[in-house]
């Protein structure tokens, strides 16, 4: 019961992050920072627009209130949308089955490419925003349309959710998770058909460069090593190996200044700036 309670607390915190921030604007409202500016044209310095892909239970703007403005300030054209909507609408996305969400992300990438004239995009994702693009690049033709992929709080092999997956499998409760409008929850259970297809061979496919950033303090993606990749063109970063002063948990990565630095440097390694380790903690959240 203690493990189940921990999971439920985490889920509630995620929902609160979405609904609280959304009280002042709708999930699809264009922020004032200039992201989702469809008149933006990529510069020579940054020819690929950046598509941001949110996590489970978040939406297209609240997940990136820290990162998107930083990318815009660095000169990128930046776009995001809320994918995977179900009964909760735009307040909490990413709940639909992940194969469907991957197709949505693919359609959004096409819209960005067509509007900006860019041949390829860069994708930056958090949590489920790493799993869904990985499927899109591997199985839906996205590898030819993505230059750089950077994920944080990554998850490619599922999560025990502090024991919930084991409990659900033992009690045959996977159908209940789908019944409340969260097909993605079932997809994340180790052994799911979705994960089997994603992990049939390397997750990372030829074409894009892949960067995956994980935190040892992740209590949502358990074990955190589910976010590590193998293969050519892959860079794995354990956050604490870069910055021992950072104890961010899964949700905290979205507002972590150290993550912002790492993302910017991985998107443009030729002009990367010296990494400055900053103390940051979200007490495991």
From TrEMBL:
SUPFAM superfamilies according to UniProt: alpha/beta-Hydrolases
Signal peptide: 1-17
Keyword field: Signal
Statement: the UniProt record of this protein carries the keyword Electron transport: no
Pfam families xrefs: Lipase_2
Official protein name in the record: Lipase
Record organism: Streptomyces yaizuensis
């Amino acid at each position: 019961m203690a493990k189940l309670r921990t999971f439920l607390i985490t889920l509630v915190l995620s929902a609160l992050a979405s609904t609280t921030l959304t009280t002042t604007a709708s999930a699809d409202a264009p922020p004032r920072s200039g992201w989702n500016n469809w008149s933006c044209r990529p510069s020579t310095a940054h020819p690929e627009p950046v598509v941001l892909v949110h996590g489970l239970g978040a939406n297209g703007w609240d997940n990136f209130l820290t990162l998107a403005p930083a990318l815009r300030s660095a000169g990128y054209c930046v776009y995001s949308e809320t994918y995977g909507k179900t009964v909760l609408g735009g307040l909490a996305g990413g709940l639909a089955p992940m194969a469907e969400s991957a197709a949505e992300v693919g359609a959004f990438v096409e819209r960005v490419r067509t509007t900006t004239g860019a041949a390829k995009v860069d994708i930056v994702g958090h949590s489920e925003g790493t799993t869904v693009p990985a499927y899109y690049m591997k199985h839906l033709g996205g590898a030819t349309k993505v230059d750089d992929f950077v994920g944080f709080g990554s998850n490619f092999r599922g999560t025990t959710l502090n024991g919930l997956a084991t409990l659900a499998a033992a009690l045959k409760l996977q159908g209940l998770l789908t019944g409340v409008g969260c097909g993605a929850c079932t997809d994340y259970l180790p052994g799911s058909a979705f994960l089997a297809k994603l992990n049939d061979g390397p997750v990372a496919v030829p074409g894009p460069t892949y960067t995956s950033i994980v935190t040892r303090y992740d209590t949502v993606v358990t074990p955190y090593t589910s976010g590590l990749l193998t293969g050519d063109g892959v860079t794995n970063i354990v956050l604490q190996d870069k910055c021992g002063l950072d104890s961010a948990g899964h949700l905290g990565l979205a507002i972590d200044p150290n993550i912002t630095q790492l993302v910017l440097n991985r998107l443009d390694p030729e002009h990367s700036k010296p990494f400055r380790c900053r103390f940051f903690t979200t007490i495991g959240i």
